[in-house]
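pipeline/complex-builder :: batch 7 item 3
reading input block
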Amino acid sequence: MQDIDIADLKRIAELIYQKHRYDFRNYAMSSFKRRVLRIIELKKLTVDALLKKLTETPSFINEFLDELTVNVTEMFRDPGFWRIMREEIIPAILLNHKQFKIWHAGCSSGEEVLSMAIMLKEMGIWQDVQLFATDLDTNILERAKTATYSIKNMELNEKNYIRFQGTSSLKNYYKEENGNAVFHKDLLANVTFRKHDLVLGDVFNKFDLILCRNVMIYFNQTLQNEVLKKFHEGLFKYGYLAIGSKESLIWCDYANRFIVVNNEEKVYKKIKD
Amino acid sequence: MDKINLNNSFKAVVIGGSAGSFQGIVKILAQLPKGFPLPIIMALHRLKHVRHGFVEALSLKSVVPVTEPNDKEQIKKGGVYLAPANYHMSVELGNNFALSTEEMVNNSRPAIDITLSTCAYVYKDKLIGILLSGANRDGALGMKHIKDRGGITIVQDPAECMIETMPKAALAMTKIDQVMRVDQIVEFFKDLDKQYR
């Protein structure tokens, strides 16, 4: 396996920023390095060849982004989190707003937003919620829109769903086609998928709930701090923010504008503008 | 086997383990000298979807409570850390942890190779890497990275291991400084501790 030094990683991030306007300059170095090494191996490139390709082949950036971003996820990941959503957070939002909006920031291949749609359907409030699912990577957004997952992944998804104690069976939401689980299209009827860059993009709406789980772990603390400001702006007062179970906001400038609602599942509530 | 020249310049100890390593880890942590000066960073294979219980079980007899760090948590001297379930755990140059949900490596998340290799990168020759019993080859490449960057490499004696695949894979891949039984690793920690007194 090749190695790559920090100076080269910085050159790559700088080039992508200057040339393509994606900003990886404040990504956590350990994972950014692994991702770049992975691309170099996959595409059988050297560092110099990668820089050249990023400079001279405009379309390569999409391929690069698709491999660079981490697209490993599960439906109903952390079933305990989903139970809290169903039993505490969503009911609390409903006390104030009969209709509301949720943002899945960094939605990847869509398992989380699909889980949310299923949960809302089982709660009978599916028609009243608008879901926005965004990602940097257009290829993965296209995949997410198909709501199609390899049948191989369904055992784990089904296990999570059972531990979430859903009211049905996950099997009732999809049909099997050519080794894939194809979820019913109407589940995504209230979902808007759009390309959005958390680092350089602006907040595009106001939400009652933002989910950004295991996305900011790829950022360094400087960038986590900046992105939290955007989430703060994108939330109504008393809106909720959910991050990954092993993430923390305590060192961010805006931490004191939130309170912890559930420390185990990392759900926060905005209490100050 | 080379004799290890101990001194007080080490910055961290990293331990990898899988099937059959639990008892060994418990013994090591139970007999850790009080006030042991280095962080102990552990990547152990574990059930992906069981978040609770493991760290509590390890803490039960440990001299220092074991914690599963949050992403970007600062690494403290004397802290004992365990890679959380279903996350890879890296060490960053700022001496803090970074977690990730990337693809499994060697069928594992947490993967021992990731923790060991990132420790090797950050701590260079100021690192001690220990690989215990286990049933796959995860950790071998990480031990090689530790050796290549001048760190010290120790594996549990395959003859003592419940499953010898993991230490044997490391022995085949790189030069291992010492092969030790768990009781020898316990003594090693005591000797190491004395260097800092």
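note: The radius of gyration of chain B is 15 Å.
queue -> next item
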